[in-house]
Design goal:
Distance between the termini: 26 Å
Structural class: alpha+beta
CATH architecture of the largest domain: Beta Barrel
Number of strands: 8
Helix content: 25-40%
Oligomer: single chain
């Protein structure tokens, strides 16, 4: 399947009234494809709202299109969003401990490569691994602060978290950082008849 067809199929999965943060919809994607502007078509499809209708198939199509375009970070982003569609979303405001206070001396890579442990509130010794995606930046500098997304290796263990909860990041003593949960979404929230099915966030945080 070529790039245009991958994007066309993904556009076909977008509800007619759904728009991106910039106000673009599926019809605009088709206009881009007629002009062979595949990069913009992909960007629109990445940015449209709605965990209620987005599927793993949708993100697989976008991931393959990004691979055809040799856009490696966006390949990783679409893979990440496909994982979130299956397992849920956890977004947080992460503040790293400064290097002079014992914090890490290297940046956190932005695209989900780092897998630190986290104390998630039940016990200081109850640690769980989660990957980090840094939003709107290629990395998070030592001692820095920024919005992140977390992908736990055991998602059910994190289901008790709600916005406002504080968790700590651990790599080696002392604590490496503190994160405040800002948004949480679970896949079952999108099922008919389950409260809380609205999409809690808008667009990609790349």
């Amino acid at each position: 399947m070529d790039t245009a067809e991958l994007l066309r199929r993904a556009a076909g999965l977008v509800p007619e009234t759904t728009r991106s943060a910039a106000g673009f919809g599926a019809a605009d994607v088709l206009d881009c494809l007629r002009d062979d502007d595949w990069d913009l078509a992909l960007a629109i499809l990445e940015d449209v709202d709605g965990f209620g209708w987005q599927t793993v198939e949708y993100w697989d199509l976008l991931q393959e299109a990004a691979r055809h375009l040799h856009l490696e970070r966006r390949v990783a982003w679409c893979r990440w969003r496909g994982w979130e569609t299956r397992h849920g979303v956890i977004r947080a405001d992460l503040r790293l401990i400064a290097p002079e206070a014992g914090g890490r001396r290297l940046p956190i890579p932005g695209d989900g490569l780092l897998r630190p442990m986290w104390a998630i509130g039940r016990s200081a010794f109850d640690l769980h691994v989660a990957k980090i995606w840094v939003e709107s930046a290629p990395e998070l500098e030592p001692g820095g602060r920024g919005a992140v997304r977390l992908a736990p290796l055991t998602p059910p263990s994190w289901r008790h978290l709600t916005p406002g909860d504080s968790i700590t990041m651990h790599e080696r003593p002392p604590v490496a950082g503190t994160a405040t949960i800002t948004e949480v979404w679970h896949p079952e929230a999108a099922r008919p008849g389950v409260a809380g099915g609205a999409d809690p966030h808008r667009g990609p945080r790349k």
